[in-house]
Structures are given as C-alpha cells and as structure tokens.
Amino acid sequence: MASSVFINIKLLVNVREQTQVLRGKELAILPVIEDAYLVIEDGIIAGYGQMKSIAIADHKFDQAINLDGQIVLPAWCDSHTHLVFAGSRENEFVDRIKGLTYQQIAAKGGGILNSASKLNATSEDELFNQAWKRLGEVSRMGTGSIEIKSGYGLSVDGELKMLRVIKKLKERSNLSIKSTFLGAHTYPLEYKDDHNGYIDIVINEMLPVIAKEKLADYIDVFCEKGFFSPGEMETICRAGAQYGLKPKLHVNQMNSIGGIETGIKLNAVSLDHLETLNNTEISLLSGTQSGLPICSLLPTAPFFLHVPLQPARQLIDAGAAVALASDYNPGSSPSGNMNFVVALSCIQMKMLPEEAINAATLNGAYAMELHEEVGSITNGKKANLIFTKPIPSLDYLPYSFGNNLIDKVMIHGQFI
Ligand code: NIG
Ligand code: FE
User: Fold this and answer.
1) φ/ψ of residue 115, rounded to 5
2) Is 332 in the pocket of ligand 1 (CB under 6 A)?
3) CATH 3.20.20.140 holds for 77-366
4) pLDDT value at residue 192
C-alpha cells in the first residue's frame, strides 16, 4: 500500500467526518483544521488531524511532504458542463457586443444550432481530442469531478457520438465524470414546427440505444420560451425515468415558465441556471424537506451574457441547497474555470467565501450524486485536492480573483 503524509498544512479545508447536503445557513459553516496533516493511502484519504497530534516517527509512510504554509482544499466538483463541443463561437460573442441578444442569435440559426452543425461535421476522434484537452485544462485549474452533457448533436448519430466521447473520457481520465443526455437542448431546424416529431426521436430512437449502451447517468431538458415547455420536459423525463435516468434540468435561465414546479414534481436531482426566479419559486426551492432539488447556480453564464446574476443570497437565506458550477459551453460560458466561478459568486452574488467553497465542492458532489467519493476531506473519499500557493487566508482565494493561486492539483492520489 502506497502511503504519504502531508505535513505543516496551514489550513485543511472542508474536513468532515460525515456529510449531508448543505442547505441555507449550513452553507456558511466550513470546517477547517489549522496547522494540519493529511494521510493518503492508495489515492484515498486515510487520516488527518492537527500537527501537534501526529507522531510521524511512529508511522511508516512511504513519503512525508512538508507543505509549509500551503492551504489544502477538496478539488472543485463541477456539476454542470457542456465540455464536449466542436470549435468555438467567438463570432456570436462579437455580434452580442454589437447589440444582438443571445435569443436573437439563436432565432437566426446561431447559438446551439451553430454548435450542432459544427459537431455533426466533426469526427468522434477529433471531438474526443478537443474535449480531452479541455478536461486537462480544467483539471489543472482544480476541477476533480465533473458532469458533462450531450446536446449539440440533435440527431441520433450526433447525440450518440457525444455520449460515446463522454464515455471514453470516463474510461481514460482519472477524474470522476457523470454523463447527462441533453437531446432536448433545442429543436433542429427541420422540427421547428413539429415538436412531437423531434420528441418522438429523442424518446424512441435515442433513449433506447443510450440505455442499452449505458451512455448516460442523467437526463436534461432546456426548459425555456422558444425551446422546451414544462409539459414537453415532463414527457421526456418520464421516458428517461423508464430507463433509470434521473433529471438534472435547465430551468429559469431567461424566463419563468413553470419549469421549477415541474422539476420538483419530477424529483430532479438538481435544477440548474435559475437566473430568473420569483418569490414563489424561491420558496418552492427552499426549506428543510429532504428530496428538494439542489439549486445549481452557473454565474459565469449571465456574467458572459451580460444579464443579472442568480439571486444566490435570497435562495440561501430562504434555506435552499445551492451548488456552483461552470456551465462550460461555447455559447454562454466559454470557460470552465471554477476558481473564477467561486470568485464571481462572492463578488457579484454576495456569497461568503465559505458558502461559495461549500457550494463548489460538497454540494457540487451532491448535485452529481458523487458525495460518497468526493467533495470533502473525509476518510475513504478520493484524494482529489487543491494545494494553493502560500496565501494569507482562505478569503484571499475569491478576493484575489483571476490570479492563479493554485500550486498543484491531485486527482485520486496523483499529482497532475
Ligand atoms: O447552459 N441554456 C442552454 N444551454 C447552454 C448554452 C448553450 C449554447 O449557447 O451553446 C447553457 O447556457
Ligand atoms: Fe448549461
């Protein structure tokens, strides 16, 4: 058994003997050990405590590493991304600078449809190579577990190609990865006036193959004006449930059209985006009942689209379970940098650093149902860790936004 001990850790962050999803006020409690040690055996966290209580000479560690003032925290758990995509869309970015809106660009065949035509013209190998490079980049920025969606195929072949790429990423990467089927991301042009025709393909042609080849862990629908209605979302999710796929859903990104009520009824694991929320919806999402979906906020999307960010403060104050994710995608968040997501949440959504770090680690793990293996410093969990450069305090992380404060990242016990 390979064992190592890290000693003289200035601050060991998010240390928990047991975990539960964090709701409301619980998000502000971030347990830490000052002047700590951490033991890792075969890639798994196997012990921790205060330096004064460790007697290194009594133990036989293969390696003792002196961290001398560094802070160690769980690697980011990014619970909502579209990391598999072909090419980029900076032309639309410039169109928006010139005055067009995201919705106007989508209506003229840009947006998701633009990415879909690029993706359908790209081979599976090339798509894998692009995604592999992005996965490497986000892991170097501290992401240790990640959810990745399909949704830029919008054809049987295209959706299966994306999901097979995600499957290959799972096989080749040591990050923990969850896969989500988002065939209902938008309507292909030829089905613009035949919603049922496309939904029929999603349900009867895509889902059976996905289930047979075990290509997805979850199902997602973009519930939005001009995209899928709550009723259409319900039909698709009920079909997914027949194959054991639980919903993680795009709702209330631009408009409030009933996606929250439907998502709760469908027992969604998470409801994601939530830029536009009324008070009734905030109270539906809040409270202590178990079974309420996690609210996955993706603040870089409204930041990039220059619209108001999610009402994180109101959600947390009302008692909701908030997670933070990057939404990494070519249209609304062409960055998977969770350090910036955390900083932006503190700077613009008034989340406390403790709340943001909990939301981007433990609650993110719950939003992917990976909480037994990642998201906190807990014995038995994977050693997915961020080692910071020497910094004065934990608050310095979001404060010193945009600067690279990560010294090293460890995934499942291996430095990358
Ligand atoms: O999460 N809102 C839907 N999907 C993506 C954006 C898709 C795109 O523009 O490519 C999102 O923001
Ligand atoms: Fe998204």
Assistant:
1) -65, -35
2) yes
3) yes
4) 92
Task: Please state, in angstroms and rounded to a whole number, the distance separating the CA atoms of residues 84 and 165.
Answer: 8
Q: What letter represents residue 158's amino acid?
A: G
Ligand 2: centre distance to CA 60 (Å): 47
Interval 91-136: pLDDT, tens: 999 999 999 998 899 888 899 999 999 999 999 999 999 999 999 9
User: What pLDDT does residue 294 have?
Assistant: 98
Spell out where 14-86 has E strands. Answer: 32-41, 44-50, 63-66, 71-74, 76-78
Q: What pLDDT does 57 receive? A: 62
Query: Is 41 touching ligand 1 by the criterion CB < 6 Å?
Result: no
What's the gap between Cα 159 and its chain centre? 20
In the chain, what are the domain boundaries? 3-75+375-415, 77-366
Residue 58: predicted pLDDT: 64
Rounded-to-integer distance, Cα 315 and Cα 350, Å:
12
Ranges of residues in the chain with a pLDDT under 50 are none
- Centroid of ligand 1 to alpha carbon of 328 (angstroms): 9
152 Cβ inside 6 Å of ligand 1: no
385 is written with which tokens? Answer: 């860790």
The CATH homologous superfamily of the domain defined by 3-75+375-415:
Urease, subunit C, domain 1 (2.30.40.10)
- Name which residue sits closest to atom 11 of ligand 1, judged by CA: 332
